Amino acid sequence: MNEQHTHKWLILVAVGNALLMGTIDGSIVNVALPSLTTDLHTQFHIVQWAVLSFLMGLSVLILMAGRLGDMVGKKRVFIAGLIVFVLSSALCGLSPGINWLIAFRFLQAIGSAMIVALGVAIIAETWPPEEHGKAIGISGGIISLGAVAGPALGGFILHVLSWRWIFFVNVPVGLLSLALVRIYVPDLQPKNRNERFDIVGAILIGVTMFSFVLAMTFTQTRGLFSTPVVSLLICFAVALSAFIWTEKHVAHPMLDLSLFSDTSFTLNLLTGFATFVCISGILLIFPFYLQLVKRMDQQHIGLVMSAVPLALVILAPIAGMLADRVGTRPVSLIGLAVIVGSYILISRLTVFTLPIKFILMTLPNGIGMAIFQSPNNTAIMAAAPRRRLGVANGMLGLSRTLGQLTGVSILGAFFARRLQYYAGKAVDVTAAGNSAIVRAMHDQAYLAVGLVATGMVLALWQAQREWKRKSIEQ
Q1: Taking CA 279 as the corner, what is the angle to CA 426 and CA 329, rounded to the nearest 5 degrees?
Q2: The domain 3-197+252-473 belongs to what CATH superfamily?
Q3: 337 sits in which H/E element
């Protein structure tokens, strides 16, 4: 094993710690939303911006960060991201009001984009090729864990401390990550040092992502067919078209569009996007169900919601190693099937569901996500050439972040509409009856079943093509 691989486990710990911290903050505020709504005398659609501003920043910047890492060095950009993240976390904790918190959360997303865009790419470049499934499986499990563990961790912190400590805790953890990365991650020389940064492409993809995520957030208060939403979607379509045209005609594009010629790469991204849409939309609602319907305190909310991240921690590395042996496609298909079944179980939650039954009914969601995400991430990274690992990982992070943002905004809007329907009037979730909350949550689970099942059908279609191709080659 060469020198670059000598400290592979220490590299994984250093990068994984930063990835966990960077992704947790996409959802850790969720569990505090009911308290923030009350304490800051605001409303559900306003306080959600504490989550949405972070996801918006990630969506706009993550692809640029991946491209920059490929050009100037992944370690340099990763370290810069850690520094920005630590400083902005401290500012979030010091925020004097909701508007300041929303602004500092966007700044925090800039640092997180640099971390998330390059973490898996660093691991893929420093681990031996024959162990990529295991390494990416572990790192993918860490990322998925971060995306779903936020509410559980936030519940524990809020029970003993104020909401400010949700952000203050990032400071010592971030400084530890910074020290580990500086010591153990090697200086990875960029393969694209002589290429120019695509400024026009960066501006266009920024406008594209900003228009999309802003449109998604406006759907909650304005409706899907309102003038602002339609205008933003038109802007999104025009900017996306201009971006694609530009990337085809510049010497050094922001995004290598040839990556999408591999249907496996494209479909795996889309399927991963769908799974994060669903889990983010459901996790947004669970704290309200547990606090308002089940009358749990924040400590117990964190406890009962810890089943999903625990399953991810245990099973994601196993799924990655299994994918190394039998292939990524069969393992990911099993994971998708389990996820579909998990949302069917969630649709059976009632006003009278006991906490232990809630844990047992939500646990399969974590199991399915663990089984699916590890091989799916491995397949995506395996489809990209080494000189484009940063961009490929940026696309992987973008699909995950857009999935989270779309889940929070679209599924959040869907939940609000169904809540209004069952309540018989316009009502905020904090004033709705238990029956209305539960029935609206059921509808959200049914929608999740349909979305993931569609992804599963596409994955089966791709699997059939792959198996047919292998049989012809043999």
Answers
A1: 150
A2: MFS general substrate transporter like domains (1.20.1250.20)
A3: helix 328-346
What is this structure's pTM? 0.71
Q: What is the DSSP string of 136-202?
A: HHHHHHHHHHHHHHHHHHHHHHHHHS-TTHHHHTHHHHHHHHHHHHHHHS-----TTTTSPP-HHHH
CA angle 402/363/397 to nearest 5° reads 20
Please give the average per-residue pLDDT across 366-387, as a whole number: 79
How many CA within 13 A on the CB side of residue 361?
16
Residues 330, 194: Cα–Cα separation, whole Å: 40
Q: Which residue has the higher pLDDT, 46 or 170?
A: 170
* Between residues 84 and 65, the one the model is more confident about: 84
pLDDT value of residue 2? 47
Give Cβ neighbours of residue 59 (< 8 Å, ≥ 6 apart). Answer: 209, 212, 213, 398, 401, 402, 405
Distance CA 389, CA 124 (A): 8
Decide if 415 contacts 281 (C-beta within 8 A).
yes
What three-state secondary structure class fits 93?
helix
Measure the CA angle with vertex 117, ends 116 and 121; round to 5°: 100
- Asked whether residue 85 carries a pLDDT value surpassing 90, the answer given is yes
Asked if the model's pLDDT at residue 192 lies above 80, the reply is no
Hey, how many other C-beta atoms are within 10 angstroms of the C-beta on 261?
A: 10
Task: Find the mean pLDDT for residues 409-426.
Answer: 80
Residue 473: count of CB within 10 angstroms of its CB? 6
Q: Which of 376, 289, 361, 260 is nearest to 327 (CA)?
A: 376
